[in-house]
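Fold this sequence, please.
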Amino acid sequence: MELTTVWFILIAVLFVGYFVLEGFDFGVGMLVGLMAKDERERRVLINTIGPVWDGNEVWLLVGGGAMFAAFPEWYATLFSGFYLPLFLILIALIVRGVAFEYRGKRADRAWRDRWDWAIIVGSFLPALLWGVAFANIVRGVPLDASHEYVGGFFNLLNPYALLGGLVTLTVFLVHGAVFVALKTVGDIRERAHAFAQRVGAVAAVLAVVFIGWTAASAGEVAVWVIGALAAVTLILGLAASRIGRDGWAFLGTAVAIALVVVMLFSALFPQVLPSTLDAAYGLTVDNASSTPYTLKIMTWVAVVFTPIVLLYQGWSYWVFRKRIGVQHIPQ
C-alpha cells in the first residue's frame, strides 16, 4: 500500500476518533441549556465530560497536524477556502474551553449563566459547522487549475452541506443524551432517555436521507454498504436506549458516527478535495501529498506514539467510569 493511502486512512481514523469522542461532548454541552433544570443538574451534566473533554479535542489537533504534514496542499486549500466556518469553529472551541474552566470561579448566578451560554453556543456551532464542512469536502468546491478556492462563503451553504450540518447537530445531540444516560442516575437519566428518543427520530430520518444522497452521488457499492450499516447501528442504538441498555446504546451511536465518517472518506478517495469546475483541478492523495521521505518518518512516529495515546486515553475513561447524580453535587 502506498504511504499516501496509508496516511489518508490514518487521517480518516483520527477524525473518526474526534467525532465519536467530541460528538458526545458537543451533545452534552448543548444539553446544558436544553435539559438541565437548575444549577446542580447543570453541574452534573458538565461533570460527566469534565475529566475527558480536553483530551477528546486532542484528536482534532493531531488530525489537523497530520493533514498539514502529510497533505500540505489539501491543508492549505481547505483552510483558505473554508476560512470563515473553520475560524468560527476555532473561536467556539476556545470560548467553550474557557467556559468550562471559568464558570465555577465565582458564586454568582449571572456569571455562571453567561459561561453556560458560552458552553451551549460553543458546542452548537462546531456540531453544525463540522457537518457543513465535511459535506462540502465530499461534494467538492470550486477549485481552479492552481488548486485555489475561487468560490465564496455562500457556495458552502448548499442543500447537501446544510443537510450534513443538521445530521451532525442532531446525531451529536442524541449521542450526548445517550452518554448522559450512561453516566448519570436518577431523574436526569430518565429524562436523557426520553430526550434521546425524541431527537433520535429526527436524527435517524435526516441521517438516512444524507446517507442515501451521499451513496447515490458516489455510486459505489462499498459506500452503500457502509452507509446502510451506519443507519442500522444508529437505529439499534436508539432501540437499546429505549429499553435502558445504556452501554449498548452508546456503542450503537458511537459506531454509527464512526461508520458515517468512514463512508464520507470512502466516497472521497482517492480525491481529498474535488473541484466542481473541472475534475482535473481537484486535489488527490497524489498531487496533494508531501514527499515520500516525510511520509516515511511520520509513519514511524505514528507507529510508536499512537498506541501510547490510546492506552492513556482508555485509562482515563476507565478511572472516571462511575455514574453521578445530583446527590453528589453539594448545595
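DSSP finds eleven helices and two strands in the chain. The longest strand covers residues 271-273.
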